[in-house]
Specification:
Keywords: Membrane, Transmembrane, Transmembrane helix. This is G protein-coupled receptor. With about 325 residues, the chain is mainly α. The protein has 10 helices and 3 strands. It has a single domain, classed as Rhopdopsin 7-helix transmembrane proteins (Up-down Bundle). The protein has a 3-stranded antiparallel beta sheet with strand order 1-2-3. α3 packs antiparallel against α4, α7 runs antiparallel to α8 and α8 packs antiparallel against α10. The mean pLDDT is about 80.
Length: about 325
């Protein structure tokens, strides 16, 4: 149901982006649309293709989506979901970096040289770590060869017959094929969070510092775009990074949950629709303001026309 319910928000956001004539939006329009496509594909993948059902503290998941009817590697959904989350993060980082580079190139001053250089190197480190995480998750595909051993070990430890189910992917979280991608993913999420927030704060400082160098309209557009990036950073942290870290930590902390991870699934899959609000709310607000200003100008024109007509009629010939 989540993909169907989120379709209107994606269509409305797409319509408002394509019709927005702002120079700032036009410069990143392709990046915005690419981000929306990636977000919607991630929702389809998570809710329709995979639809994982968690049973913490048992370290594994069932598939209730389309992949449940396929005889592919049971670890494949974990790899695909990891790569999709990395693509979502990459799309957001591209927007952050674009704003930082644009502002630093246009309004470059010596006092921002060092922080801008550090953040740009931090983006490069994020990209390198992204590639490392994407590669580090691939060895989990070989867990299938040791799956029976993991099942027996989990059954002896948890005393649950569900561990022996052939439809369940289960793996020892202490195995290097699991904990290395886990800690690398946490490191990547932390680095992205710090880099994104630092980038947004630096952009705000640059915009504020250059307030006397540019026009008021340009200043407002750049400031609003930076606030949009801040909104995106918060959405990414609270609706992607924190739920994923929480879900992964459940297996290491030996914590059980009753809803089988449904709440986490809903939170993560809703991030795209929540992200679209940054396009929908300002876009609709601009439309309403424009319509209101047009209506007021028409009323004032009618009023002046009526006054001039009555004035002419009352003037003696």
């Amino acid at each position: 149901m989540v993909p169907i319910l989120s379709v209107p928000s994606y269509l409305l956001a797409w319509l408002l982006i394509t019709r927005n004539k702002s120079k700032v939006v036009q410069a990143v329009k392709k990046k915005y649309i690419r981000q929306m496509i990636i977000n919607f594909l991630s929702v389809i993948l998570l809710c329709v293709v995979v639809c994982p059902v968690l049973i913490p503290p048992i370290p594994g998941y069932f598939m209730m989506g389309l992949m449940a009817y396929d005889d592919s590697n049971v670890a494949l959904p974990l790899v695909v979901m990891t790569h999709m989350v990395l693509m979502v993060a990459f799309a957001i980082m591209q927007l952050f970096k674009h704003q930082l580079v644009t502002l630093s190139d246009v309004r470059y001053t010596k006092k921002f040289e060092l922080p801008v250089k550090i953040i740009r190197w931090s983006y490069i480190l994020c990209y390198v770590l992204l590639a490392i995480v994407a590669i580090s998750i691939l060895p989990t595909l070989t867990i299938e060869f040791d799956l029976e051993g993991f099942r027996r070990g989990a059954f002896e430890y948890f005393k649950s017959p569900i561990c022996l189910c052939s439809d369940m992917f289960i793996a020892d979280p202490r195995h290097w094929k699991i904990y290395i991608p886990y800690f690398l993913s946490i490191s990547f999420g932390g680095l992205c969070s710090v880099t994104g927030v630092s980038s947004v704060i630096t952009c705000l400082v640059i915009v504020y510092d250059s307030r006397k160098m540019v026009s008021r309209d340009t200043l407002i557009m750049q400031r609003n775009f930076t606030f949009i990036l801040m909104y995106q950073a918060l959405v990414c942290i609270f609706l992607i990074i924190m739920p994923l870290v929480s879900v992964s930590t459940l297996f290491y902390a030996d914590i059980s949950i009753s809803e089988h991870g449904l709440y986490y699934l809903l939170i993560i899959s809703s991030q795209g629709a929540v992200n679209n609000m940054m396009h929908i709310v300002p876009g609709l607000w601009r439309k309403l303001r424009k319509k209101k200003s047009v209506g007021q100008s028409r009323q004032s024109w009618k009023g002046s026309a009526m006054w001039s007509t009555s004035h002419v009629a009352s003037t003696p010939s």
